[in-house]
C-alpha cells in the first residue's frame, strides 16, 4: 500500500476519555497544535462508566480530612507498592481539579449549605468522594467535552491506533492508525504522543467494561514500542458486578450502593461481611470484599446465578432515587425494584492497576522519549489495589500535568522513519488479507476464559503455568487467523484487539507467577501471606530477542508528611452508616 500523506501536529493524544481531554485542554489553552483521537464517537469514552465519584480532600463534611491523609489511604490500599511521589501529586492536586470541573459544569451534588457533597467509599478514612448521584463519570466527561468544544480542540472519532512510530534511536514521533468508518490508513507525525487509552480488564470473561473497550491497547502499544510495563499482576476485581441479563453480565453495580449503606447477604440470610471484616464491613477494601463474595459463592452459599445479594432497600425510596438514580433505573428496566428487593451481584474484573511505566510523574514521560501516558494506561499511582474514587481523580490530575508540561516543553521535531511507516502499513494489509483457520472472536473468548480461570481472583503456581501454556497455544492459533474482511468490519477490529490482548495477558500471567506472595488484588492460595521482601515492583520489558523479560525494583518510601499521616492510623468507622 502506498503511504498516505502524514498528518503533522505538535501533540497526538490517543484516547478521548477524561485523561486525554484534560491534556488536550491544557495544550489548546497554550495554542499548541493538538489532535485528540478515539476509537468511538466523541463523548462515548469509558469514563462515563465511572459512576460513584471522584476523590478530593475538600473537607465538606469532614473538615479534619487532609491531602496527606488521602495519600496515606491510597498507599494503604495499594499495600505500599505505589509510586509514592505519584500518590502525593494526586492527593495534592485533586481538590483543584475537582473545583475546576465544577466550574466547567460537572454540577456535583451539594450539601444543604451549598458545598460539594462527599460520600463514604471503601477503605477511606473520611467522606472524601465527590459525586453527582451515580452518574459522576458522565458528568465529568460532559464537562470536559464542553470545555474542549469551547476551545475548538480538533477531534477524530472512530480512529484506531495500531502502532506507535519510533525512530532508529528510539524516539516516539507519531502513530499508525486506520479510519474505522472508511478503512483508510492514517499516518500521524507528531513531536509528542500522549497515551490515554485506558486499561485492559476486558481480557477477562466477566468485566465491567464493554466487550470492545479496555482491551490493552495502550499497554501493548507502549510495550511494542519498547516501553516497560509495570505492576501488571495487579488487576482489581470489583465486588459487585451484574450477573444478568447476559448482555450486561459483569457491568458494574457502583460502590456508591455500599457507600450509601448497602449490605451483602448470602442465601442463608447471613450478613457475611461480619465474619470477614467486622470493623469495616461492606466498605472494606475492594479486594477484601471481592474475595469474601467469591468465598461465599464457592462455599455453596451463593444465589442460583452464582452471586450474592446486595440490599439497600432499608433506605428511604426518595433518598435512593436521589443518590442512586441510575442504579434504580437500570434494575427497574429488568424488573428489579432496588427500593424494595436486593440485587444479585458477583465479582467482576474492573480496573488495571498495572500499565505503562512513567519515569517522572511531574511530566508523565515514559522511558521512550516523546511518549507520554496518563490515566488508567499508567502504572504507579494505585500499587497493589486502587482506592475507590481515585480513578477519576487520576485522569484529570495527570492529564493536566502532561498537558502543562508539553505546553511549555515540546520535543524538537524529528523525521518519520519511512521504512517503519511502510512496514506498519504492510502489516495492516496482511492482517486484512489473513486467510487462515481461526476466527478472531472465538480466540478472544478463549483468551478470556484462560485469564478468568488462571489469573483471576485467586491464583496459584500450577494454574498460572497452565494458563501460560494455554496462552502460548492460543498465540500459535492467532498466527493462523482468518480475517478476510475490510477494515470497517467488526472482525478486523477484533483481530487487532486480539493481538493487543495476547500481549497484555502474557504480561499479567508472567508477573503474577513471579510475585510469590499475596498483596492487595493479587492473591495466591499457595502463598497466602504478604512477604516484606516483595515490597517491590515488577517490570516487564522486551528483550533483544523480542521476548518478555522481568525484573523487580524496590518500592519508594513516602515523604515525611505522608509518613506522619500513615502513623496517625486514620480509619473509617463503618458503623457511622448504621
What does this structure look like?
Among the domains are: 240-350, Flavocytochrome C3, Chain A, domain 1 (Alpha-Beta Complex), CATH 3.90.700; 418-534, Methane Monooxygenase Hydroxylase, Chain G, domain 1 (Up-down Bundle). Helices cover 36% and strands 17% of the residues. The protein has 16 helices and 20 strands. Strands 1, 2, 6, 7, 8, 9 and 18 form a seven-stranded mixed beta sheet that branches. Strands 15-10-19-20 form a four-stranded antiparallel beta sheet, covered by helices on one side. A four-stranded antiparallel beta sheet has the order 11-14-13-12, covered by helices on one side. α1 (18-29) runs parallel beside α4 (136-150), α5 crosses α15 (490-514) and α14 (461-478) packs antiparallel against α15 (490-514).
In short:
By secondary structure, the protein is an alpha+beta fold. The protein is built from 16 helices and 20 strands.
Uncertain regions spanning at least 5 consecutive residues: none
Overall CATH class of the domain at 418-534: Mainly Alpha
Number of helices: 16
Radius of gyration: 23 Å
Distance between the termini: 66 Å
The number of distinct β-strands equals 20
Counting helices, strands and paired strands, the structural category is alpha+beta
* Strand content range: 15-25%
Mean pLDDT reading: 93
- CA-based shape: globular
Helix amount, in percent? 25-40%
CATH topology (level 3) name of the domain at 418-534:
Methane Monooxygenase Hydroxylase, Chain G, domain 1
Question: Could you give a short account of the major beta sheet?
Answer: 7 strands, mixed
The CATH architecture of the domain at 418-534 can be named as Up-down Bundle
CATH level-4 homologous superfamily of the domain at 418-534 = Fumarate reductase/succinate dehydrogenase flavoprotein-like, C-terminal domain
